TrEMBL record:
The keyword Zinc-finger does not apply. It comes from Streptomyces morookaense. Its main location: membrane. Keywords: Cell membrane, Membrane, Transmembrane, Transmembrane helix. The chain crosses the membrane at residues 33-60, 136-159, 171-194, 206-225, 245-266. It is a multi-pass membrane protein. It is found in: Cell membrane. This is YihY/virulence factor BrkB family protein.
Length: 290
């Protein structure tokens, strides 16, 4: 295979940023990291939804709560939130605290996996302070999610208003606008996840490109998994396993997509004239936040 490594096409390929990202993912054993994120995310999903439903029921009106429920259901294929919101009032203070702790632990797992992509050591410091930091990150993640959902709802409503008042056929326009609004919402979310969670300051251009790749990829995954649920998982022959398997697949692919985007921000392209990526210390690839 030495002839292949000397081929000019192969040489140019190994100088691309995408190839360097692949090498980074291979070096950090990203399949193991994705498995860790998938397991912890699946365990934390329902407790986080329960806490979110309780907070929503306490702060929002019934109409606003139903609208948010509809948008969250659209974000997670196969997840129906009616039973969570209907019983949100039964979540007590102690139960809510325990459920919130599950979410905080999930943030910690996700943070360490993203730091592993940057080849950084585990975040040092006092355990209690780290938990408080993870709680703040979780609250920030929720705030960013609300802002992104608001942007998506505003964009969709604006297009609907234009279609209604101009008489233009809105079928394709609404579909495209809905997709673009969802990509914008996911873009804001990815910016937060890729920078704040691992505690680094990546190159802004790489961060923007990675967030855009993640946002578009996330929407494509939702479309594919929704089609799977309608065509395969909903069949009676799969019984009760269809939806959980679909959720696991969705979480697994999302975890791998997130790790790939993190590697895009953490990797420097190979220098011109070199076919291999030089080892770069974390400080050379990005700046860590304090």
């Amino acid at each position: 295979m030495n002839w292949l490594t000397r081929h000019p096409v192969y040489t140019r390929l190994t100088r691309t940023h995408a190839w360097c990202v692949y090498e980074t993912l291979t070096r950090v054993k990203w399949n193991r990291l994705a498995a860790t994120i998938t397991f912890s995310s699946f365990l934390a999903l329902f407790p986080l939804v329960t806490v979110g439903a309780a907070v929503t029921a306490a702060l929002l009106s019934e109409r606003q709560s139903q609208e948010l429920q509809k948008r969250l259901t659209a974000q997670v294929p196969g997840l129906h939130l009616g039973s969570f919101t209907d019983n949100a009032g039964t979540v007590g203070l102690i139960a809510g605290a325990l459920l919130l702790l599950t979410g905080i632990n999930w943030v910690g797992q996700l943070r360490e996996c993203l730091r592993a992509v940057w080849e950084l050591e585990e975040d040092p410091g006092n355990v209690v302070l780290l938990k408080l930091k993870d709680a703040a990150v979780l609250l920030g993640l929720g705030a960013v999610a609300l802002v992104s959902f608001g942007c998506s709802a505003f964009a969709t409503a604006a297009v609907d208003w234009v279609v209604k008042h101009t008489g233009v056929g809105g079928g394709v326009l609404l579909t495209v606008a809905g997709f673009c609004a969802a990509v914008l919402a996911d873009f804001l979310m990815m910016l937060y996840v890729l920078s704040r969670l691992p505690g680094v300051h990546p190159d802004r251009r790489n961060l923007a490109v990675a967030a855009l790749i993640g946002a578009v990829g996330f929407e494509v995954l939702k479309i594919v998994l929704s089609s799977y649920l309608r065509g395969v998982a909903a069949k009676s022959m799969y019984g009760a396993f269809g939806t959980p398997v679909a959720l696991l697949l969705w979480i697994s692919f999302t975890a791998k997509l997130t790790l790939a985007c993190a590697a895009w921000t953490a990797t420097r392209s190979a220098p011109k004239g070199r076919g291999e990526l030089r080892e770069q210390p974390p400080s050379a690839r990005g700046r860590r936040t304090t």
